[in-house]
Amino acid sequence: MPPPFFAENMTKIELAWRTPEALLTAFEDVPHLAFLDSGGIVSARSRWSILCVHPREILSSNEPDGWAQLQRLLRRKRDDVHHDVPFSGGVIGLASYEAGLALEGLQSRFRPLIPALTAMAFDGAFIFDRREKRLFWCSDSHSPMPPLPPPGRVERARTLSRVPLSPDMSARDWKDAVGATRASIGRGALFQANLTSRWHGDLPDDADIFSLYLRLRETSPAPFGGFLKLPRFSLLSASVERFIALDRDGWLETRPIKGTASIGRDEQEDARIAENLARDAKEYGENLMITDLMRNDIARVCAVGSVSVPALCQVERFTHVHHLVSTVRGKLACGQTAVDLLRASLPPGSVTGAPKHAALKLIDRLEGSARNAYCGTMFRIGNDGAMDSNVVIRSILISGGKVEIGAGGGITYPSDPQREFDEMCLKAAPLLKLFR
């Protein structure tokens, strides 16, 4: 094993390579765990995975000052940490959809299952370099590495429970809600709204949540997945969507996803589906509106003239579907922080609608249950000021013996209710399959 690397206030130790699954299994029984999981094809956006255990402090808040408490969890911003790893100390957490509602001055008619804001402060992290197959322990405060059992072959019986899941809206209710959304758009109340539904079920007392996550990451590898484990709830995510990334120098990027199509049975069909998605006027318009919304949101905290859209409505292929993806970039204004950026942009525009405030009110009137973690964001903020975050989609929430998953899609005036229902079911299918 190479000797530890020490810089000012920084420790970096290279370990023998272990897969994320192997190291996760070593910490299966810890009460608090945060794993930011990059899966699928290795790219610049999915090179690193991050595992943290044993937080020094935990935040759980439903209060307006929760954001100030989150800022206080971070150590004073420093520029002397090692820059070739994405994270060596800071906070990892979850802002629920209802946290975003509160930032818009709204409150849901539904009672959420989880706190609005949850965060854990860590003094070090295991860093997986998926491209180079290298594993490091990194700490910007010389925190000692948690003890590890000797490496070995992972042998684990994956016992997954069959859980009947029931939707909070019937197919008829869903289509009626699509019709009501289209009517609101027709009256000029808004341009677009993201309509979603959730499936709920009772989880057996002996359910193996850890194995459920291992199975999820195996069947639905995703670039912005993750696993948060706390005594009150667990979040298992296979998100394909980045929310906002912020580098140490203050440059930020958000990649809104709108527009979905299935995967083909062969390369020729796949290429044809992707081409049709790229030419779909309805899907293009949906993505364009949300891209403009995100551009406006980040402009609240960006330097004047720094916001740009370098990529608009590009087709990207994921494990189970194609999506249209755009890219918006900007430079954080002087004096603004990652926490300010989250406060300015939640809830994510790609899962709300435009104008955002009007869409949020309509969503709460039409949907059948609280969104909770779904359509919120899982985030990491380093002590160096950098941040990355996802949109919590393709995810499973487990809390108080209950399990829920969500799916949905953007509704515009040309939307066809049956097509929107089919698209929602397409997104939910890989998650529902895990419980059958």
UniProtKB/TrEMBL annotation:
What Gene3D superfamilies does this protein's entry cite? Anthranilate synthase (3.60.120.10)
Pfam families (UniProt xref): Anth_synt_I_N (PF04715), Chorismate_bind (PF00425)
Instruction: Identify the InterPro entries for this entry.
Output: ADC_synthase (IPR005801), Anth_synth_I-like (IPR019999), Anth_synth_I_N (IPR006805), Chorismate_C (IPR015890)
Q: Anthranilate synthase component I N-terminal domain spans which residues?
A: 17-136
Q: Which residues form the Chorismate-utilising enzyme C-terminal domain?
A: 172-427
Q: Which domain of life is it from?
A: Bacteria
PANTHER family registered for this protein in UniProt: AMINOBENZOATE/ANTHRANILATE SYNTHASE, ANTHRANILATE SYNTHASE COMPONENT 1
- This chain belongs to which protein, by name? Aminodeoxychorismate synthase component I
Lineage, highest ranks first:
Bacteria, Pseudomonadati, Pseudomonadota, Alphaproteobacteria, Acetobacterales
